[in-house]
Amino acid sequence: MSLLLKIILPICCLLTFPSLFAQSQTNPTGYLLDCGAGESSSAGVTVSGLRYVTDEGFTSAGNITKLKQNDLVPILSTLRYFPDTSARKFCYSIPVIKGGKYLVKTTYYYGGFDGGDKPPVFDQIVEGTKWGVVDTSEDYANGLSSFYEIVVLAKANRLSVCVARNGETKSSPFMSALEVENLDDSLYNATDFANNALSTVARCCFDDKFNRIWQPFKDLNPVVISHHKVNPLEFWNVPPEKAFKNAITTSRGKRLQIQWPQISVSTGDYYIALYFQDNRTPSPYSWRVFDVLINGNKFYANLNVTTKGVTVYSTQWPLSGQTEIVLIPSNDMPVGPVINAAEVLQILPLGGKTLSKDVVAMLDLGRQFNNPPSDWSGDPCLPKENSWTGVTSNLTALNHIWLGGNKLSGTIPEMWSLKDLRSLHLENNQFEGPVPKSLSQLPHLSEIFLNNNKLDGQNSVTAQ
User: Predominant location of this chain (predicted)?
Assistant: First the structure.
């Protein structure tokens, strides 16, 4: 038996599970994508009750392949990889409800798809913010796949999840599966999701309404079994009922000391939630009182724990390095302190978002072009080092579009909403049709190059 804890920590850590293992639960609201499954797999695959559909239609970039390894979980047997070395990022665009809170999970299993023996290292990006570095080498060497989680607020009706090359990338970025699942408003509701996201790590799974990943934990302290069920819906974060099945405790009058999380965490601010329940059969005597300390600082004083269960939390608590949780019983307690479960969520500041009007205009521009650059999806400007090919901006407003000599064709749409556009280079392509009237009216546009196209009246436009 073991205590069940959930860890939400820095991105440098990985979520891992054996490559022949699949999660088990009913499918929550959202999208479960089997990357690389192809159009022929439109019916999808079911993995232990979860229905995954092909990722076709959610991204226009990359190639697909099927791994040669036998006996893999279906969602690990295929992947989508992105070999274009000129592209700055490769994005999935997922329909969401604006203002909704979503759990995003990316899964990676290398399988030697590129003929090598070591997985590539690359970045992943969510909603224009660098999420972290994907390095699955250690897990793959141990026969494991890897996955990452993050909780993020949807600020529009589409949510972008991207991968991108970095200085360590030797091969092609790839993805095996992508999950985007809607969360109840109550979950982590004290977090400022307008400016932050919550990054996650854990190493095992069990049933959870929202398909979150929790980690079993066991140390040298005694483990007890609960004799009374709690109702998870009475807790804001809706922990699974199984989280209260076991608890760690100690003898009467002793402090309960737990070194957890078991890895060193990066310096930063964290949301911490701790869950407690008196494990005994309900009676007038089934309660216990103790103080809760984290790294020597008082987290909660005189906590009264009954068989109904209780949670205490902090919306912003500093952590750095190793963490110790200490429970100190009141002097007259006939039983020792107890703890059932915990969550530590690292606050990940978001890097901003390109102005919505600019995003809409650029997406429209991309739809009008034939064969636009493969990285024209996701946020056009952010992260800055992963902006769309030919696009530069000042903070979140788009300023320059330079796509001369890119073998583009189609028509050029109006660009009325790009109020901050200063230069436009579309020369040496194969565009046809009229020159947009907006180009002569944009207040800051001072540099326009449309020569060597097939436009009507391309020499008649002048910048203000």
Answer: membrane
Percent of the chain with pLDDT over 90: 66
In CATH terms, the fold of domain 30-195 is Jelly Rolls (2.60.120)
Q: What is the mean pLDDT of the chain?
A: 87
Q: Which of 106, 118, 120 is nearest to 173 (CA)?
A: 120
CATH of 211-349, one of 1.10.8, 2.30.280, 2.60.120, 1.10.10: 2.60.120
Superfamily of domain 356-456: Ribonuclease Inhibitor (3.80.10.10)
pLDDT interval class at 461 (50, 70, 90): low
Task: Please list the residue range(s) of the chain that carry CATH number 2.60.120.260.
Answer: 30-195
Measuring CA to CA, how many Å separate 235 from each of 187, 200, 230, 231?
9, 20, 10, 8
Give the pTM. 0.79
Secondary structure, 3-state, 387-399: CCCCEEEECCEEE
Burial 439-458 (b: 16+ CB within 10 A, else e): beebeebeebebeebebeeb
Residue 19 scores a pLDDT above 90? no
Amino acid, res. 272: I
